[in-house]
Amino acid sequence: MIKTGIVGLGKMGISHASIINAHPELDLVAVCDSSSLILEAMSKYGAYNTFSDFSKMINESNLDALFVATPTRFHADMVLQALRKNIHVFCEKPFSLTVKEGRQMLELALKNNLVNQVGYHNRFIGTFNFLRKIISSGAIGQVYHFMGEAYGPVVVKRKESTWRSDSSEGGGCLFDYASHVINLIEYVIGDIKDVSGVMLKKVYSQSVEDAVYSGIYLNGGISGILSVNWSDETYRKMSTQLTVLGSEGKVISDAQEMKIFLKNDNKALGLSKGWNMRYITDLTDPVSFYLRGEEYSSQVDYFAKQITKRTGENVNSFASALHTDEIIELIRSKAS
Amino acid sequence: MDRILFGDNQFFAVNHLSDEKARAQAIQFRTNEAIIRVLDIAIDLGVKTFMCTTHDRIAGICEHIRDNSDKYKGFKIYPCMPYAHKYANAVTELGILGALKEYLPGNIFSTMAKGGMAYARKDFIAMMELLIDAEMKMFKGINTPVIFIQNVLTDMILGLGMKDIFKAYHSYIIKKYNAEPGYITMNMPMLLNVLEEVGIKNPIICSSINKIGFRMSGGISSYEKIIAEGRFRPIAMQVLAAGAIRPEQAFDYVCKQKNIESILFGSSSKEHIKSSIEMIHKFS
């Protein structure tokens, strides 16, 4: 069993804790949070060892692995402490507040040869993986343009401020929502090289943006549009979509459904000339424990497998998340 | 329980296959009248139970049912709580404590208030009871013989191993609402074992049950085996696997699993509701 700890028991943290505890190879031995209410619930009903002091947990629990699900401004300090103690780290997104911090975490993880993963869960969704395969196989020819979108109802009225409304703590739509789309574009299509025409819009928030619109450039003349808004209550929950146009076809994909248009048959991928529909039901592998979506269990399972098998592959590495952070910095610098 | 339970996903833009269809449905059902129209069609076709989330808009439907109590005589609602996205969005924005502050009735910083007292004493069971009461308010005067916990919450508690919460929920629903507690889950085999461990016998469990094993964590063969053992009262949901299975084959499969007590489905068209009901009767 992999002795696992978690710090930060917010929405993602609690969800990770539940998945970790249900996982056959992971043993959740320690949990840490700043709220005494949450800790008492965890110790009373879950019989977990609880800590309010992170360093104490790290020093006393003899952990093999750690999940970091605190606000982003705490990531660097906690991740570095864990890596120094040779603990494998799964860190929630966005990875780091500044690229400088991100580089320190990446370098130490590589130096100490530790499994490192970031929680960009879209990389574990069947539709987006199939889209990646369609593009890399050349099925839609030369990609020339794309659109990356995400909309949802996080901030739909003016309200008291929290860490999410402070960009110096990792708040705002760019850090929180657009990071998902940027990271997914880099996974599915390729590394982003430049951005232009950046618009960061405030809708309800006082000090952070609620929407991010930008032009995006990749190598090989590929261009794209980023359109992300977390103040759109016409969406019931976060909804992410990629539309990719190529010389031989076009794909519109979200987390559930893919609409694929090809100019020619593609036997290797089982796609025909004209429109093809593919659904997540055909593209998802079952998980041993389900909570909120297969991708959340799959990413935890992948992390556990990397620790036991050490294959060296890493679909969601610190390095890839750091690149996302670099693009976030670039977008912010071009906005001002 | 009735053989057929009518669900509400189609009314609230929940579509497990298509975001686009979900948005079209949100527009189609923008008024309560549109929801009631479809509900009435289902009732005319023989449906007697509506299983729905505690979505804010259900309050309006409940009001209509109360105002026309003669027309809806014998009609039952199975509430499923909570409407998770309401809390999830609040937690994303305000954190867990902020969300509690928003939804726990009364001022949680005043120990004079019931909610404040529960909060100050870290009495989680009392807080849970208050949140249940808040969710149940909209159903006042309506027959709610089974009350469910939504799968997000069931499965989160299950994963965390907080078994005693199930026990407390179970006894509160029986004691306060004189109703049967129900559990929605995506992990039926694991849940049943845990419920039995805390002494809950023959529970009502609603889970995905379909021919292709979609969202049946633990595996389809384990589901089939446990259903055949007759240790619980199964409700089959996601029978069509979000549309991946043809209705004929889908209903044929669930109806062949002998111990399944009820089948839950939702639809927004008269033709679909009618043909689904006919198929369930035909294969049962």
Explain how this protein is built:
The complex is a heterodimer of chains A (336) and B (284). By secondary structure, chain A is an alpha/beta fold. Chain A has helices at residues 11-22, 36-46, 54-60, 75-84, 99-111, 126-136, 173-188, 280-283, 294-309, 318-335; strands spanning 2-7, 26-32, 49-51, 65-68, 88-91, 116-118, 143-151, 192-201, 211-218, 223-229, 239-246, 249-254, 257-262, 274-279. Chain A has two domains: 2-121 and 305-309, Rossmann fold; 124-287 and 317-335, Dihydrodipicolinate Reductase, domain 2 (2-Layer Sandwich). In chain A, the strands form two sheets. An eight-stranded mixed sheet of chain A has the order 8-9-10-7-11-12-13-14. Chain A has a six-stranded parallel sheet with strand order 3-2-1-4-5-6, with helices on both faces. In chain A, a hairpin with a 4-residue loop joins β9 (211-218) and β10 (223-229). The mean pLDDT of chain A is 95. In chain B, strands 1-8-7-6-5-4-3-2 form an eight-stranded parallel sheet. In chain B, α5 runs antiparallel to α6 (124-136) and α11 runs parallel beside α12. The radius of gyration of chain B is 19 Å and the shape is globular. The chains are: A alpha/beta (336), B alpha/beta (284).
